Each structure stands twice: as C-alpha cells, then as structure tokens.
C-alpha cells in the first residue's frame, strides 16, 4: 500500500483541496511542512478582522504577511433603539461621535500596522472596510446584509431572508411618517485623523461594498486614498441618499470634487455601483420631512448631476477600466468629450443611463451614436456597455471586440431594431479596430425575470466588475426574501 510520500504531488493537492471542503483546516497544519504550507496559504489569503484582532495582525511573521492578499476590517458600532421614543435625538449625536471615534481608532491602528509591511510585486494587498451596528438588522434592515459576524452562515440556513414584522408592518406610520429611522443605518462617516495616518505602500486595492450601509464622506475617502500611494483598483458601492436636497447640494458636488481632482494618480481600474432600495425610497417619499419640505423628497428614479458624469469622462482618459452604475449618466459622460481626447489605455467602459428605457428610444439612439464616435478614440477598447435596470425593465447595448471579431448586442425586456446610422457608426468602430466584420446579436429578456436591478445585472450578462459578485448575490437574495412593507 503506497504511503503519502509515494503519491504524486497532484494527488497530494487533490486530497488537500478535498479536505478543505470539510471544515477547519488549522488542526492539520502540524502534520507536515507540505500541509502547513498549503493550509497557511489558504487561511491567511483573506483575513476578516475585528478591531480586537489587530494585535495579532501586528505580530504576524513576515512570511505570513506575504500570504495575505485581502484584509477586511469589519468595525462593529454602538447599538441603538428603533426610534426617538426610546432613544432621544439629543443622545443620537453623542452616539454618532462615539461611532466616529471607534472607526478612527480602528483605521489608524490598521494603517500603522500595514505601514511596516513591505510592498511586493505579486499583486499587492486589497483593503476592504466595513462598519455596522447589530441594531441595523434588528430594527430597520431586517433580512438585509450588513457584514455582521457569521451573517452568511445564518442566512444560508434559512430558505428565505427574515422580514420585519414589528417595526415595518405594524408600526409603519409611527416609524416612517414620524421619525424616519432609515437615517440611522445610512448615517454619514466623517472622519478626522489626528495624528495623520502613515502611508501604506503594500495596498493596491480598496473596497467598500454595498453591505456597508453607512455613507463614507467623499472627503474621508480622498484622505484614505491619498495614504495609499500604490493604489491601482477601487471598488466603491455607496447608497443613494434618501434626501434629494442633500444628494444634489452636498453629496454630488463632493463626488465631483473627489473624481475630478482626488483619485489616485496610479489608478487603473475604477468600479462604482450606487445601490438603492426602491421600497426604502418609497417610504422616504412619504415621511414627514418630504411632506413639510418637498425638495427633500427623493425621485423614484435618480437623475445624476451632469458635472459628475463630466468628471468621470475626464478622469477616464488615464484608466484601463471604468464602470459607473447610477452615480453618473452616460449622456453626461459623452457630452463632456473634447475633440482632442483619446483614451489610449481604456479597455473596458460600462455606464448606466436613464435614457436606456423603452420610453426614450430616440434619445437612446442618439446616445448610442455618440458612444460609437467616442469608441473610435479608444484604440484598445475591448468592451463598452450602456445599460439600465429597474423592477420589470432592463436593457443593455454591448460592444465587444475579441480575437478577430467584433459584435454589438442588444439584450432587453423589449425588442429593439437599431437605426441604420447606429449600425453604420459601430461598423466604423469595428473597421478601425482591425477591419473586423461586425456581428449584430439580440436577446429578449422576460420582464418577470427582473424583480430588481440586481437581477438586471445577471440577466443582461454584464461584466463581472460592474458590481462585486458577493454584493450581487446579496441584492438578489434580499430581493427574493423581501415582502411588501407598505400598508
């Protein structure tokens, strides 16, 4: 009977991978050096840390530091009561200040630790940040992902996500017409670091996923990115605000400033997905503030600020990959194009537009024609997608170039026949890309398959970098588990 040492190395690997599918590996690390190497590589590749674990990270050996490719700092904040009857508003300000201090201390310590790590040439380290309070799902976001400990395991054991029964269904009027508790899980994160953070050269990727409901202020993100001089990839998934006035007068101008002048110079890939919950938007449209101050009432469909789209257009000249969903409109992006612009490095461009709807067909045709003109100034372009998605309606126009072929594809919940001038414009793009013959493809999607924008991403077959794959699964699962919460 052959012993372990007599088995081929590929059989060793198969056995170890099979073992990894059946629980914790750490107890087996002492069996041999080979087992230790395999197990440590898997265990240290992705580290999910609470602030209390940072002491262990600080004393990690240099060899194990090199195994880490992704660090997720998951910061738990104070709990709170569901509405002001139990938690007075004057105490809410104190809670916010304490939460800010908790976040600042955790990030400061992490940056000090990582500043001592040596940078490598094997892809660097991705840093992910998340904040949450257990009260978020206990009272308001029942059945939603927030990044809590063992959250995935808990939901995996349930056939559908739990839905709120007390706070939403039976006390809807008290909670949403009077107090609007949605502001609590989506409160702003405005950080000030004293002393200043050190530079961290080992980090090349930065992620804030949509499960982080709290809104990182753009000036805070600008500061953090400035301390990451080797940053090459950013994936940022903020949430649409429930206050239209704040969105237009404060948040969008801050986004413009962040994109226009404060993205890292070495950035190559940028993916932004501004998430939204249509039920929560409906609730916010009916609360007391929207009734008293109508200018705060959020639109059913957000109209992005044109300056933000223009800022993305200018900044994309230096990028290899850009995807912006719902924060900016493709119409504003292409309107900002200057005659002398050339995107020498851009390979992938994915944008949303409110014009990509059945009711805006003629404006959409103009957009597709202008997109083709811009594509002729992108010599390395491989993929361009313009899309939109909401409940019951979704569509995408995609240009794809690979090997010796090029294609345009229409996928949507309604049939569309492209105008001859649109076909001619994209034929010129294919010709200038290498005299490829242009294929035209169409695919009809059932509107019943689109209960949310998350399902639109899936059925439209959008590129994987549009939204984090984990985030996409969360959106779909939250949609499946959702019940009507309006009376």
Give a quick set of tags describing it.
single chain; 19 helices; DUF6546 domain-containing protein; DUF6546; alpha/beta; two-stranded parallel ribbon; 487 residues
Parts with pLDDT < 50 across at least 5 consecutive residues: 84-88, 159-171, 483-487
Q: Specify the structural class.
A: alpha/beta
Instruction: Quote the distance from N terminus to C terminus.
Output: 70 Å
Query: How are the strands of the biggest sheet laid out side by side?
Result: 1-2-3-5-7-8-9-10-11-12-13-14
Helix content: 25-40%
* Number of helices, counting only DSSP H or I runs of 4 residues or more: 19
Number of strands: 14
Largest sheet: 12 strands, mixed
Could you report the average pLDDT, rounded to the nearest whole number? 86
Strand-residue proportion: 15-25%
Estimate the global geometry from the Cα principal axes: globular
Radius of gyration: 24 Å
Organism: Thelonectria olida
Protein name: DUF6546 domain-containing protein
InterPro entries: DUF6546
Domain DUF6546: 263-468
Notes on the protein architecture:
Among the domains are: 4-53, no CATH class; 69-302 and 470-487, no CATH class. 39% of the residues lie in helices and 17% in strands. It has helices at 9-20, 33-45, 54-58, 62-65, 89-114, 134-140, 151-156, 166-170, 172-179, 218-226, 244-261, 278-285, 288-292, 306-315, 330-335, 361-375, 420-434, 453-459, 469-481, and strands at residues 46-49, 70-76, 125-132, 188-189, 203-208, 215-216, 233-236, 269-273, 321-325, 348-352, 383-390, 393-402, 405-412, 438-444. Strand 7 (233-236), helix 11 (244-261) and strand 8 (269-273) form a beta-alpha-beta unit. Helix 11 (244-261) runs parallel beside helix 14 (306-315) and helix 16 (361-375) packs parallel to helix 17. It starts with 8 loop residues before the first helix and ends in a 6-residue tail after the last helix. InterPro entries: DUF6546. Residues 263-468 form the DUF6546 domain.
